[in-house]
Design a protein that fits this description.
Number of helices of chain A: 13
Number of helices of chain B: 6
Number of strands of chain A: 19
CATH class of the largest domain in chain B: Alpha Beta
Order of helices and strands of chain B: EEEHEHEEEHEEEHEHEH
CATH architecture of the largest domain in chain A: Alpha-Beta Complex
Oligomer: heterodimer
Helix content of chain B: 25-40%
Mean pLDDT of chain B: 97
Number of domains of chain B: 2
Largest sheet of chain A: 7 strands, mixed
Helix content of chain A: 10-25%
Distance between the termini of chain B: 17 Å
CATH topology of the largest domain in chain B: Aldehyde Oxidoreductase, domain 4
Number of strands of chain B: 12
Structural class of chain B: alpha+beta
Radius of gyration of chain B: 26 Å
Largest interface: A-B, 124 and 123 residues
Strand content of chain A: 15-25%
């Protein structure tokens, strides 16, 4: 089926930078050596939810080697942002440096800029903040109860989708009527926990004043212009005054789509007129960088005796942690992916993006879809057990075919799930009955 | 106490490109007078091999040797806009932009060569090895380098091209969810065998066998790298990894790789895979995205295999030894 007349596409040519990776000669952002570089370490909230009564940087500023300590008072314009504002995500909920409240343990409050990494690290704990602790909420369903502590500035612990919808939703067919007519109702609850991206190269950047009003930011961000635009808006510069350089990164997995280090490093470079490096330690990466969200997914299916799924209702709670970041997008992607690679005539999805006093989660490899595939594929085995239909055959019966209407009302094309399952069966030595082995994504014979 | 074996499978699809679209990428291609071509853009290579596959795509579309294509990326002062490397989008989006730019540059290259050879540009072909010649008459030829030199010094032309790929934004209807969310879908099906120690709760993954369908492969070795790496990531997600072991509680958060447990090389079984190629009309030479989907089928396949081995119904990940032993206790209690 592959295109036959190709000369170089389809060939296993050697990875361009394999030799330099192996020999340690690839140039990453950190390999840029700039004289007079300063280092930035963050003082972070020790509480998951608290009012900030007072921020005192006097002691920290007096520490050896410290050049300046930045707080929210140093922000030139806006004090909060949300990275996807350009595509309509709102409100701008996340402080660049916290001011009135902290909403998660680890939230940045004061940036200590010093002559060496060691000096910055030693001085950061000297920042003194007076807090008034507030009740915190950590569980997504607890957070949606009326009496729950309020995490967000807008007073509701969920993202508000257009037209005042509390969830990203899909409505296709009539699930309740189909449930009433189904031979079996199969329900379960699925839970994933937060996961770290664990890139070899931790998140970081160096922001350098060029002396002509422009700033160069060397960074391992996964999206250079996205970071540039967000940084410009936060530090109060025209985007034309910024240059972002990167492109060779030691692992991302979605963790480096977050805009976390570039704005504050650039602000520090503007303030000090010197290059500033802000690099996450491994502990920062583990504890304060975004994680893959925890997802709680309830699946309810209506199934016939022959294994055909006639209705699927999904209620999902994505744990965004304290701020939006990219989460409301991930929730929509999750909803749009449902009901998975199966053709089901009645589908209802309510996917909630929920805020808690946990570290913010964000994008990770397979954003919104990994959790959905996880829940659906465990659910398929439960359906197989309930109906007595073989798990392989169950998936082939329900697999989507080209031309089928999906729940988001786009006709399927490029379908190849049937062929992929058949190939896996062959690889694993799993015999399929002749009619199942003959199935195709281009028709529904036998399915 | 026993060591029990089980098998699990899972099948998935995965969308290519940013959800709902609206995520453009541009590329520029030009010939230098050295015989090299430069692809200029601002896409990010995360180690997966983006620079390599974009050079392959450019070389294919230009009809020149792979070695002569340089990828210059990662500078917003010189590289045109890219939305970023995520959403399994860059091979597809940047790849399409590179094809468009390369085809425009190739057209000029052949026009220049035609003038030098005094033939019609439509009758010229490239051999992919550095020569342009008349179809059916290989001796009527000019090297790509000589054509590039002639363009610059004799004919006063730039051998260059511009490319962009944009799937326009499709808003999601807030009530029904109606939308056009993606460009194409890739597919995977994974079969996992496990052995579970009912005394310790430890899980050994004995084999991971997967079939993938990802459209035309650009670089099969790099595709296999993604599949093996994703199987490893999937094992970690399924069995041990979390920053919140007592979720939703925030305590006991790990601070390093001693507390955050990922599978080691000794725990990895051989990963077997077959890759099917059903080219998509939307992709560069038919390629779909594979970057993100590679943990998605291994994770549920591992958990389904554990449930199959033990006759239990675990629905949370990671399935740590504690989770397994509690599930076995529950099973014993309900049987009693």
């Amino acid at each position: 089926m592959a295109l036959k007349d190709l000369k170089i596409v389809g060939k296993s040519v050697r990875l361009r930078d394999l030799d330099t990776h192996v020999r340690g000669q690839t140039t990453y952002y950190e390999d840029v050596r700039i004289p007079r570089m300063l280092h930035l370490k963050m003082y972070r909230s020790p509480h998951p939810h608290a009012k900030i009564l007072k921020i005192d940087t006097t002691e920290a500023a007096k520490q050896p080697g410290v050049v300046c300590v930045l707080t929210h008072e140093d922000m030139p314009g806006k004090k909060t942002f949300t990275p996807l504002a350009a595509i309509g995500v709102a409100p701008e909920d996340e402080p660049i440096l916290a001011f009135d409240k902290v909403r998660w343990k680890g939230e940045p409050i004061a940036a200590v800029v010093a002559e060496s990494e060691a000096a910055a690290k030693a001085a950061a704990p000297k920042v003194k903040v007076t807090f008034e602790e507030l009740p915190a909420v950590f569980d997504v369903e607890e957070a949606l109860k009326a009496e729950a502590p309020i995490v967000t500035p807008w007073g509701k612990n969920y993202y508000q989708y257009p037209d005042d919808h509390a969830a990203s939703q899909i409505r296709y067919g009539d699930v309740e009527r189909a449930f009433a007519e189904a031979d079996h109702i199969v329900e379960d609850k699925y839970q994933t926990k937060p996961i770290e991206h664990a890139p070899l190269e931790t998140t970081g950047c160096v922001a350098k004043p060029e002396g002509n009003g422009r700033y160069t930011v060397y960074t391992n961000i996964q999206a250079l212009y996205f970071a540039l635009d967000n940084t410009a808006a936060i530090v109060g510069l025209s985007p034309a005054k910024l240059r972002f350089v990167g492109g060779t990164v030691g692992g991302g997995f979605g963790g480096k789509v977050d805009i976390q280090v570039e704005p504050i490093a650039t602000l520090a470079a503007i303030k000090t007129k010197r290059p500033v490096k802000y690099k996450y330690s491994r502990e920062d990466e583990m504890r304060v960088s975004s994680t893959r969200a925890a997802w709680r997914i309830y699946v309810k299916d209506g199934v016939m005796n022959d294994g055909r799924i006639v209705a699927r209702k999904i209620t999902t709670y994505q744990d965004a942690g304290a701020y939006i970041r990219l989460s409301s997008y991930g929730t929509m992607k999750h909803a749009g992916h449902m009901p998975g690679p199966y053709t089901i005539p009645n589908v209802s999805v309510d996917a909630y993006c929920v805020f808690t006093n946990r570290p913010p989660s964000s994008a990770m490899r397979g954003f919104g879809v990994m959790s959905g595939s996880y829940a659906i594929e465990l659910q398929m085995d439960k359906i197989a057990a309930v109906t007595g239909v073989d798990p392989w055959q169950l998936r082939l019966i329900n697999a989507y075919r080209n031309g089928d209407m999906k729940a988001h009302r786009k006709a399927a094309d490029d379908a190849a799930l049937v062929e992929t399952i058949q190939a896996a069966a062959q690889l694993a030595g799993q015999a399929l009955p002749a009619d199942f082995a003959a199935m195709s994504s281009d028709d529904r014979k036998g399915g | 106490m026993a060591k029990l074996r089980g098998t699990g499978m899972a099948a998935v699809n995965y969308p290519t490109g940013m959800h709902l679209g609206g995520d453009p990428t541009q590329a520029l291609v030009h010939a230098t007078t050295t015989g090299n071509f430069v692809v200029t853009l601002s896409s990010v290579d995360l180690g997966q091999g983006l620079k390599t596959v974009l050079a392959q795509i450019a070389a294919e579309a230009l009809g020149v040797p792979f070695e002569t294509v340089l990828v210059d990326t990662g500078d917003t002062d010189t590289g045109p806009h890219c939305t970023g490397t995520f959403a399994s989008r860059t091979t597809h989006r940047a790849g399409n932009a590179v094809v468009m730019a390369a085809r425009e540059a190739r057209k000029v290259l052949l026009e220049v060569a035609a003038e030098e050879l005094e033939v019609n540009a439509d009758d010229l072909v490239t051999d992919g090895e550095g020569s342009i010649h008349l179809a059916g008459a290989p001796e009527m030829k000019i090297s790509v380098t000589d054509a590039a030199l002639a363009a610059h010094f004799v004919q006063g032309k730039t051998v260059s091209g511009r490319g962009v790929y944009l799937k326009p934004m499709s808003p999601m209807d807030p009530e029904t969810g109606e939308c056009d969310p993606d460009s194409t879908h890739a597919h995977a099906c994974t079969v996992v065998e496990v052995e579970v120690d009912t005394e310790t709760g430890a899980v050994a993954v004995l084999s991971i066998k997967s079939a993938y369908e990802i459209g035309q492969q650009v670089n099969p070795a790099l595709v296999r790298g993604q599949i093996v790496g994703g199987a490893w990531m999937g094992m970690g997600h399924a069995l041990s990894e979390t920053t919140a072991p007592y979720y939703p509680a925030i305590d006991h958060a790990p601070r390093d790789f001693l507390g955050y447990v990922m599978p080691g090389a000794a725990e990895m079984p051989e990963v077997e895979c077959v890759v099917l190629e059903h080219p998509t009309e939307t992709g560069p030479f038919g390629a779909k995205g594979i970057g993100e989907m590679v943990a998605n089928s291994p994770i549920p396949a591992v958990v389904n295999a554990i449930n199959n081995a033990l006759g239990v119904r675990i629905t949370e990940i990671p399935v740590t030894p504690e989770v397994i032993l509690r599930a076995l206790d529950e099973k014993a209690a309900s049987a009693a």
